[in-house]
């Protein structure tokens, strides 16, 4: 029996799968169907009725989003059913629906932030009447408090329930619902509480009217005033596709772009709302510490101070790269410091030992972010994807919800928004029989390690044990590389690919910051322990005045990710390029340019004068040869090799690597919005004593 169904749409006969909705079939035939409640990534609600079409022979118009093609009957003569998506009958039906939708909708388009990109405006132009026959007073609905991110004007709500379905199905926290019936129906959060999902900002994009808008962005700009720049997010290691909207020299908002391989069309709240941190606490000129106080200086004076600090013995100089370092800066810095004989360089957190064996497959997410949809068993080791890669966590939930993915966790038992089997909290659980048993029955098992599993004393042993387990359970096969590492820092994989690890005889991060160095260079490294660096001269290269800058003796200001065209490599090993949306602040310069200029001062001039020439050199490394694709399972053979001499597994519990989701980097800590979210999350976590 065929899985295809013939249907006649506006006189054009097509064949579509029986699982298609009538709306999908009509769009396949080239018809345009208006809608408010329907969204291709959410379940079907069928409650706005805007998508009405005419089915010849049916007694009334059909809601095309809720009608499955396979359930339709052919005509009496056996021919394909006839559907009309235009004509007087359909137009009249849609006009009636639009009139109902506008009965209570306020006429406040001039002050509505949705103006200019509002589905209701657009469709009212196409299907609205010139006047209303409704003479009663419009009803009003009280606005709801949904926290510091989502602004609500609920009188505008048309009850499409997209937000309700999103937080329940994608976000995994059922915090929004509809109460009452008929004209009294309204959308609200339960008990008027704030949204706690890390993805709550996506309801702003989903809302087809101005009921849910961005609270930080409110009244800042109109969409036609903004310059729109496609770029890449750096708040985690996923590399989500984003659009940076700027006005003048300021970033006004950040929105997701569709990328099926990475973020689908979602974005985490930190990535979306961190933009106000781009203008606060900025380092916009060089500083040099004089008599215990940082004082503004010229670039020449700052470089002279750096030259003096770098004239110390090479073995007494250490360089630590931070979480947000771009590839060009890592490459230029490494070239300069190696030319000075400095081997103490590292881009990994203290305690990490991975990335030095030359096997790239041992530190990237080989099965890819989208690959979890092909897996049928997922083992998470020392990782909390809800805080380390919130959008990927939604993809895991989607696969668990719709494709029966089994999930197991070794590590801290957190709420991940889906059910999982907790196999233990320490690394020795990798050797338990039940762990192997969980994976062995699966056709495509997947093992994912997090930073929390690799920055321990037994990090080498955890990596070796996980690869050994992957080999034994079929997670690594000829057509499936089901083992990978989920990083949480955007700059980590790119820096590892450039070779930013200790050179021969060099110290790692813990050794560099352990108290033995005379000069320490921090490349945006703020998430490190600087308590033992009291006797050293600290040079800080970065964009924000955070922990590293407050400890620094010399500050060289660099551009933020929205202010440069720069290369990043995401956790899958996918090479991506950001785009400059605004100019760097004040005298700040791109990271690679700072080290190119410094190399002149040091008498070790680097062999490239432009960023294009630098990238030509980068492309000699095959990891940077292509842009935009993930290597995926191509490296299965290299991946099978188990690292030797790794030692034994410890029974010490895994610790979460992210304490506060909203404050993980200098840009986020400079953001007023993120500070509000953090305070709210902390307050919600604090138990309230019974009265």
UniProtKB/TrEMBL annotation:
Keyword annotations from UniProtKB, A to Z: 2Fe-2S, 4Fe-4S, Iron, Iron-sulfur, Metal-binding, NAD, Oxidoreductase, Quinone, Translocase
Name under which the protein is recorded: NADH-quinone oxidoreductase
GO biological process: ATP synthesis coupled electron transport
The keyword Isomerase belongs to this UniProt entry's keyword annotation: no
Catalysed reaction, written as an equation: a quinone + NADH + 5 H(+)(in) = a quinol + NAD(+) + 4 H(+)(out)
InterPro entries listed in its UniProt record: 2Fe-2S_ferredoxin-like_sf, 2Fe-2S_ferredoxin-type, Mopterin_OxRdtase, Mopterin_OxRdtase_4Fe-4S_dom, NADH_UbQ_OxRdtase_75kDa_su_CS, NADH_UbQ_OxRdtase_ferredoxin, NADH_UbQ_OxRdtase_Gsu, NADH_UbQ_OxRdtase_Gsu_4Fe4S-bd
Name of a matching Pfam family: Molybdopterin
GO molecular function terms listed in the Swiss-Prot or TrEMBL record: 2 iron, 2 sulfur cluster binding; 4 iron, 4 sulfur cluster binding; metal ion binding; NADH dehydrogenase (ubiquinone) activity; oxidoreductase activity, acting on NAD(P)H; quinone binding
GO cellular component: membrane
Provenance organism: Hyphomonas adhaerens MHS-3
UniProt cross-references to Gene3D superfamilies, sorted A to Z: 3.10.20.740, 3.30.200.210, 3.30.70.20, 3.40.50.740
Protein origin, superkingdom: Bacteria
Lineage of the species this protein comes from: Bacteria, Pseudomonadati, Pseudomonadota, Alphaproteobacteria, Hyphomonadales
Segments forming domain 4Fe-4S His(Cys)3-ligated-type: 89-128
